[in-house]
């Protein structure tokens, strides 16, 4: 009987994290946010049936990874935003609108050429491309 309960407890402990992971495959866990490990059941001791074993506690799943704002590629979350981009992006949506560009004469003057997809906003990708072109023209 003791072996059967131990086997059942170990099976439950192993199956619960797998079931939690399979429940939402569209939400991968972030490596920075670790899950709480499962706590195995304690073996049965002598005493009353209610006191004999402590049930296993399931693992706590990790929180899903946060997605960067629109217009910001995933790799951009690993680096600091350029100071001027950060200053101009007042609503912190990861893009600079035409109104936000008015805070910088240079950004306002070059807005249309920087907005390569012509959606009315400058993304971090567009900002970096314009910055690289500017640096190349100086050489």
Overview of this structure, please?
This protein has helices spanning 2-23, 49-52, 83-88, 98-101, 105-109, 111-114, 124-138, and strands at 95-97, 121-123. It has seven helices and two strands, in the order αααβαααβα. 12% of the residues are buried. The chain is mainly alpha-helical and 139 residues long. The model has no long low-confidence stretch (mean pLDDT 73). The N and C termini lie far apart (80 Å). 43% of the residues lie in helices and 4% in strands. It has a two-stranded antiparallel sheet with strand order 1-2.
Feature tags:
two-stranded antiparallel ribbon, mainly alpha, 139 residues
Number-wise, the strands total 2
Rounded average pLDDT: 73
Order of strands, main sheet, comes to 1-2
| Proportion of helical residues | 40-55%
Radius of gyration of CA atoms, rounded to a whole number = 27 Å
Percent of residues in beta strands: under 5%
Count the DSSP helices. Answer: 7
Low-pLDDT segments: none
Outline: rod-shaped
Structural class: mainly alpha
Largest sheet: 2 strands, antiparallel
- List the secondary-structure elements in sequence, H or E: HHHEHHHEH
Euclidean distance between termini CA atoms: 80 Å
Set down the secondary structure blueprint.
Layout: H1 2-23, H2 49-52, H3 83-88, E1 95-97, H4 98-101, H5 105-109, H6 111-114, E2 121-123, H7 124-138
Antiparallel strand pairs: 1-2
């Amino acid at each position: 009987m003791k072996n059967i309960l131990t086997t059942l407890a170990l099976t439950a402990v192993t199956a619960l994290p797998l079931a939690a992971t399979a429940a939402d495959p569209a939400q991968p866990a972030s490596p920075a946010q670790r899950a709480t490990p499962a706590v195995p059941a304690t073996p049965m001791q002598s005493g009353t049936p209610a006191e004999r074993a402590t049930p296993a506690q399931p693992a706590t799943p990790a929180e899903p990874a946060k997605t960067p704002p629109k217009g910001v590629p995933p790799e951009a979350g690993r680096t600091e935003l350029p100071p001027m981009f950060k200053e101009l992006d007042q609503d912190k949506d990861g893009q600079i609108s035409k109104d936000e560009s008015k805070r910088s004469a240079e950004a306002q003057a070059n807005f249309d050429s920087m907005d390569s997809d012509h959606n009315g906003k400058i993304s971090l990708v567009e900002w970096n491309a314009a910055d690289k072109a500017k640096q190349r023209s100086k050489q």
